[in-house]
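Sync notes, pocket subgroup
Present: LS, DG
LS reminded everyone that the earlier model was apo-only. Rerun requested with nicotinamide-adenine-dinucleotide included. Inputs:
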Amino acid sequence: MKILVLGGDGFCGWPTSLHLSDLGHDVVIVDNLSRRRIDSELGAESLTPIRPAKERLSAWLHVSGRRISFLEADMTDFGVTLDLLRDECPEVVIHFAEQRAAPYSMKSPEHKNYTVRNNICATHNVLNGIVATGGETHLVHLGTMGVYGYGHDEPVPVPEGYLDVRFAAIDGREISDSIVYPPSPGSIYHMTKVMDATMFQYYAKNDHLRITDLHQGIVWGTQTEQTRRDERLINRFDYDGDYGTVLNRFLMQSAIGYPLTVYGTGGQTRAFIHIQDTCRCIANAIEHPPGRGSRPQIMNQMAETHRLRDLAEMVAGMSGCEIAYLPNPRNEMAENDLVVRNDSLRGFGWEPIHLDQALMTEVIEITQKYAHRCDRAKIPSTSYWTQERERSQTEQTGTPDVAAV
Ligand SMILES: NC(=O)c1ccc[n+]([C@@H]2O[C@H](COP(=O)([O-])OP(=O)(O)OC[C@H]3O[C@@H](n4cnc5c(N)ncnc54)[C@H](O)[C@@H]3O)[C@@H](O)[C@H]2O)c1
């Protein structure tokens, strides 16, 4: 299949592009390299030494004999997006091209605006462009489990996008329906994903676009079968206070003897998936598009759920590292339960990788090997969800840096 991977230079997009190329698909990566520029803005670098886009692609050609094309383009420019869809005529577009860090989206009024403008505009341009080019292209979008919110303290399973409801009609009859699960975004970034989801509902209804929205858990791990083949193919590993996702941060912190930074009580429960499984699930989603005229197909792309303090204790047990419980810069429930249905992707035969199978590989292959590249000054989080939280942190510790330990 001819596949455009928007955001294919990023953490999820790069290994997915290689995975799909390895399966024999004709892959074109499109990326405006904004994520690499944000690295410079934050003065933070991937723990792993990621190579320039062109060097990665020639390394892939060298090890696999397969060519992936690369176009530097910004999806917030409609003319560019339209030309791209007209010129490439993709059967599938995979859309990763968004600003994806919640803390970065909360950093300042400008960062909030940038995240909204970039994410909403990019998604709308792609939908608008698909309609303008005939409407046959299947759009696969990476959403997040965060659109559901983490508001339950009861073990009620989170369904795959839609909730079956019953309510009374005006004449007293009982009506059954299936509605979009009530969204509850926890940051500006998550809010843009909820807005994306609304656009998907509209375009599926009005233009009969075929849309799959994958509500993904927090991705952990770094390498996949393909990125491991040559060091020039290595995937990025973010550990800084804005982009570092929780488990990868714990693993890196344990490698350098930095107390594991748990925000609040660590009673937050979240969903996780290994990066290798991200690639496999997306390949499955491509093989199973919804029909034209169907509502957006929403699938929960996650393998398992864990309470953050349990994860911290697991990593501390492996490494002997201490745990630091810090004031929470985020506005979220201190404790929650999370049970998630993932029947759709499991129904395609997917057998998830679990934490206990791959955690040590990650420690040895990545965090210990590249620990010398870590800049400890980049570990603290400096983004707050509210001004009150920032004030209270500064009053208590004399610094707005959470994790300044
Ligand atoms: N990483 C996770 O844990 C995780 C979890 C759930 C969902 N997701 C979703 O998966 C997607 C990819 O996440 P990631 O971790 O790979 O992020 P990333 O920041 O590493 O990659 C995103 C890529 O998109 C590019 N990009 C951003 N805006 C663009 C634009 N306007 N035009 C062209 N390219 C643009 C960036 O340069 C970057 O290479 C995101 O939409 C994210 O919300 C990620």
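DG: The two ends are 50 Å apart (CA to CA).
LS: The chain has one domain: 2-393.
Action: DG to write up.
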